[in-house]
Design a protein that fits this description.
two-stranded antiparallel sheet
Amino acid sequence: MIDMVSAIEELSGLTSKELGEMLKESDNFVLQSKTEDGGPKQVDMEKLVSSLPLHLLAVCLELGQGPDLTYVLRGMRFLHSLSDLASRHTRLEQVLLDDVKLSEQVMDLIFFLLSILAEQKKENNVGASPLVHASLVAASLHLLTSYFSSQWHELVHILLAHPKVDIFMDVAFDSLHEVVRLLNIRLSSMGSGSFHVGSLESRRAHFICQQCEASLQFLLLLCQQKLFRDRILKNKELSRNGGILSLSHTILKLDVPECLKQSTDLVASISRLKANILSILLQLCEAESVSYLDEVATNPNSRRLGQTLALKLLQVLNLLKIAFGRKQNITSDSHDKGKIYPMGSVLISALRLVDVFSDDSNFRSSFMTNTVPFLTQILATPHEEFVSSWCSVNVPAIEEDASLDYDPFGASEVALLASDNVLTEAKANYSCPFRPSLPSMAYAQTRTSCVVKIIANLHIFVPNICEEQERDLFLLNFQKYLVSGSPKLSADEPASSDFKATKVCRNLGSLSDYAKTLVPNLLNVEDVVLLSDFSDKLQSWCKSQVEQVAVKVGQNDTPPESTEDIHPVQQPLLTRTSTPDSKMNNLPKDAQNMEVSTPIPPINPEGNDKDGTPKNTASRNGGFLQNAVGQNLVHLGVARTVSGGSSVVASGVSTGHQRSKMDLDPASSSVDNFKTPELTKENGLQEDEKGESSMYDERQPKRRKRTLMNNEQIDELEKALVDEPEMHKNAVLLQSWSEKLSVQVEQSES
């Protein structure tokens, strides 16, 4: 018989190197040691190793009746050391690794221990310190790679072949969730104290963070394997019932106490935790076998949790947009002066997830209003700064990521010392090493493409799928926010460059131009068309608001007290209906039937030289051509196709999983066709425009159908533009044409 308890207590403190040296000096695989009274003691390693997994299982069954989790942690550390040594010791390998029955016992031990750790909060008699708990979860998971296989695809096959693999998935995520809850409680309690950076309590919190990170990184690597990921998608508890969503929400709620904001390693560790859980969500959302978001949406509770998580993503982005790209005055702890800690790819992962969620009909509505402040603050930055950050490959800063090298022996030692209340500050400074990950070469372009796709997802409208009240709803929300968030306009400078909407429109124009270069690798044609359409409509609205304020200031001789006097313009839908004009036959069917909502700004005879928007440019959406007369020919009833045969491209649709891609006209599918077309007489034109009630307020009366300009008037105006392309700058000439056209209207009506 072997005294298993004393053997584990004594030998578990030895590293694999120390155990190897002792085995080399032993005879017949028997270790020689001394008892407490100094007498000789022998340990038969073959009997000890072959009995160890079953012994630890028995201890777990008796938890609360004597042994505690601290002893189990010693046993798990001993198993790690033996597994590491087995690859270099033939006899030990035969005993430990080649025995199929023993391997089954190790697997059962891992599954059962994780199930206990997942339910610890419900079992008060099986308590353990947070450090021991966190270490046990990480040690149990990593024993799979230490004992069975370090190749992830092989390990996945081993796990999936186990009849209790679904139970393993449940308890693995639940046990980690419990550790994160314990970490959150500790961080929250520290918020009311006066702990300093580098103190013992701050080091304990950082230790728990690292153990959480080691466990979460392990699960992320498993989820990167397609077979394992597909099995998770079929797991009811984790997918449909929101198990992973709940874990994600808890991790994203983690916050560093104000007193420890200067701790580089703690801040970075929590940031990497958030990056890793976002990566797991991305892996699931982008799976092709099963729609993860559809599974979540089938359960009302999970759906609400998903909507809450969507808002949390925006909070993460709001925090990051301020700090990203700017140097932080964070001082390193005394033991690691000057050391750099990677923060993980939180921003890019959050942006990619917002793209996925906003493209799903189940969660799209959650972003209609809540993304506007985030996007506006990005787009309202100074133009040069915006272009260098979002329209360039060489961005000021790129997120740095790293993989944690988990050390089960060192981690267990810290937890065991803490449980015995003998943990010193020197020992508490323990930190797992990192392996830096090279940033993606396409990081900047990917980040920008996410912003483009988010805008496209929220601006898209297809009559047969989307509800009528969603038409241009995102645009209206954008307008409302710009009005409420804009500074006062002065009488002397109604189109001030400080006007937030003007900055946004100018930056949107640059973003639209840059987005064309990302087709087809990171964006598709449809995304760029939708962004351009959104940009053009917002630009027209912006000009109308500035001009309305200028007119109002001129009438009152006093500037407005506040921007509350500016209201988003509720405009009718301009419906492209059939027309007797034979030239309309040149338009594709989709373009002829397409409905769009376009603001109708008043004509400003003096033009606007301060808003930063280009003049004499055509709308990027191939149906509406902005010319130099006032604002836009479409406001005078003109609609033409793009030269070369390209036309307005009908938007796609946001469905349950992803936006479906419409069949584009061959001519419009070319990136070259996004270039601004010249105004030519050969272009087809729309004679008639039908004004309908605004989709934003059903109480508004219907506007009657009317013809604004006939073909002869338009032809005359176009001929004049050839000779006077800068007509909008010539007030006298513009007034003359206005009177001439008015006379023609009176004559035609009489």
